Amino acid sequence: MAHHMRTTVIVASAMVALTACAPAGYNGANSGAAEPVAVAAAEPTAAAEPEASAAPEEPAADKAPPSDVKLTDELVGKKLPRMGKVVTDQDGWVLYRFDKDSSNPAQSNCVDKCAEVWPPALTDGNPQLQGVSDDKVGTVTRQDGTRQITIGDWPVYRYIGDKKPGQWKGQGVGGTWFVVDPNGKKNLTCLPKGTPKAVAPPASGDSGSSGGGSDYSY
Q1: In angstroms, rounded to a whole number, what is the distance separating the alpha carbons of residues 119 and 109?
Q2: Where are any strands of DSSP class E within the chain?
Q3: For residues 79 and 175, what is the distance between their CA atoms, to the nearest angstrom?
Q4: Across residues 48-57, what is the average pLDDT?
């Protein structure tokens, strides 16, 4: 069964490559029905090369991370209405810092369940910077060996409670999580009333999200 599915995927991607990469070849190979597919299978290396050299970042960003590890390949310092200065990743998600981490030396203390709620901003090299000074950005090696981006020596994270780019629902959560500004400092604008709790980690297995209790330390 799995073998059959894999074959299907290969054929589908060959067809995508055929339509996306080589429309000219498509028209030229009308002589037989089987030929375009054979051409498609053989051509992607040749057809994809000019594309890859024109835009090296994008294919790498999609294919480099193993399994479900999402890399942060860009940091953007910007001003948001009401909140002021923030840093987002390449998709516009606001980044946060955690008071229980340390900056001297840089160390992340958000692991396991905490890191499911606050995914660390991981990198495999130097993220592109826009509005963030190069001398403020570094990395710290996490317990699992991945490299996390630091701003002003503070490790930075996204928040799964933010449902769309530009939100900052993580601001003030637990009294320890704050929107980070381009210098690595806490942006204390727009603090919520009271102390909001973090959302629950994603349920592992069936709908056991209610069984986790509410005493999250993250």
Answers
A1: 12
A2: 74-80, 84-88, 96-98, 102-103, 106-107, 122-123, 128-130, 137-141, 147-151, 154-155, 177-179
A3: 23
A4: 45
